[in-house]
Design goal:
The complex is a heterodimer of chains A (248) and B (135). Chain A has 248 residues and is mainly α. Chain A is 82% helix and 0% strand. The longest helix of chain A has 32 residues, at 92-123. Chain B is an all-alpha fold and 135 residues long. Chain B is 76% helix and 0% strand. Chain B has helices spanning 12-36, 44-58, 67-75, 77-86, 92-134. In chain B, helix 1 crosses helix 2 (44-58). The longest helix of chain B has 43 residues, at 92-134. The two termini of chain B are 30 Å apart. The chains are: A mainly alpha (248), B mainly alpha (135). The interface between A and B is large, with 112 and 76 residues.
Chain lengths: 248, 135
């Protein structure tokens, strides 16, 4: 009977139900910690831990069973990432007018951020694998995970690094959702709507972009553009950076 | 800016066909690149995004042929992230040892990314304005 756990139906159901619960909670209590994605991730992991205790099986083997269905949903992240070409195309006027400014800001900004993130990881004494996982976090999941995995050397190490990167990308979004508006006020970033949008899209990905749309139209458009362009830039400079720092 | 009289969305199958064709081509290109430069992975979705954008700009693909599927996929993006979040269950050992430190580093990194991009953009705008005033 328990063999249902290793069919795709289980993983698909678990993914949808935990996200749905997250969404309902968020509707009732719109506090940042109830971000549906965050709740979904925590609930999903808790269910797997609970089952692992109940069935006396290691958590890793329960995750492998979940993954059969989870991977089916995960696959759709590829077309969904590709779909961002449409909002980008709709605002191609902004891209055309400001491409140099967008590209320079993101390229220089990300390079500076990489040095600081690397220094902080060292300061906190993170292991090599966790440090690697911190580097591609400016890119959205479908782009960041493969990069993280390759830098870590693929295989089991690659899986570990990309799962940490996956969590980092989710925490980025939760932090921007929770503190984005306050940070804007503290650091007086609201006088430059373009920079604000670029920063929200880079640091908060899709959820940061949604927040940027709430702030204003230019901010929202810039955030969706930056998500795309930063993916490209991360792809260009993060492997080189990792090599220079002796992580690869 | 956009044409106001929107054309009717293409049938779902057409939209699926366009998406899967572009993804397949993107995947072949991604494999090709990884064979030439194995240390510089270019993920399939990133190539797909660029290809779809180029196809739209060149008129090869019309907006109404991809728009509704794109909107739906982007609307579901939170759900699509859930399995990658749950993948942390496979690395709980590392997470038990370093979890708190990792989360603190990620929170600081988020703020670093936000400020670094926002300030660089302000600086680039200032330089840009100066250059334009001079010329």
């Amino acid at each position: 009977m328990l063999s249902f756990l290793s069919t795709p139906f289980w993983g698909i159901f678990l993914t949808i139900i935990v996200y749905w619960i997250g969404q309902q909670l968020f509707k009732k209590f719109p506090i940042f910690i109830f971000q549906p994605l965050f709740i979904g991730m925590v609930l999903g992991i808790l269910v797997l831990i609970g089952l692992s205790g109940l069935l006396r099986q290691p958590i890793v083997s329960l995750y492998k069973q979940y993954k059969v269905g989870g991977d089916l949903i995960f696959w759709f992240l590829s077309p969904a990432t590709m779909a961002f070409a449409v909002p980008l195309y709709k605002r191609r006027d902004l891209v055309k007018r400001y491409w140099l400014r967008i590209f320079t800001s993101l390229f220089v900004g990300l390079t500076i951020a990489l040095f600081i993130i690397f220094a902080i990881s060292r300061l906190f004494g993170l292991s090599k694998i966790a440090t690697i996982a911190m580097l591609p976090q400016a890119a959205t999941t479908a782009i960041a995970l493969p990069i993280s995995s390759v830098i870590a050397g693929g295989g089991q190490l690659g899986t570990t690094a990309s799962s940490i990167t996956a969590m980092a990308v989710i925490v980025n979004a939760v932090v921007i959702y929770a503190l984005g508006s306050q940070i804007v006020r503290w650091f007086r970033l609201d006088k430059d709507p373009m920079g604000l949008g670029l920063a929200f899209g880079t640091a908060g990905h899709a959820i940061g972009s949604a927040k940027a749309i709430e702030i204003g139209e230019v901010e929202g458009a810039m955030a969706s553009i930056s998500m795309v362009v930063i993916g490209l830039i991360v792809d260009l400079i993060v492997p080189t950076f990792a090599k220079l720092m002796g992580l690869m | 800016m956009e044409n106001n009289h929107k054309k009717e969305a293409a049938p779902l199958l057409t939209q699926f066909l366009i998406f899967s064709t572009i993804l397949l081509v993107a995947n072949i290109l991604s494999i090709g690149i990884s064979l030439m430069w194995s240390e510089f992975p270019v993920p399939t979705p990133l190539i797909g995004l660029i290809l779809l954008f180029m196809a739209l700009v060149s008129g090869l693909v019309k907006l109404e042929q991809v728009e509704s599927l794109s909107t739906n996929l982007i609307g579901l993006i939170g759900l699509l992230f859930v399995p990658s979040g749950i993948s942390l269950a496979s690395s709980l050992d590392l997470f038990k040892q370093e979890g708190i430190k990792i989360i603190v580093v990620v929170i600081i990194s988020t703020v670093v990314l936000l400020l670094s991009i926002a300030y660089t953009s302000q600086l680039v705008a200032k330089i840009n304005d100066k250059l334009h005033h001079k010329s």
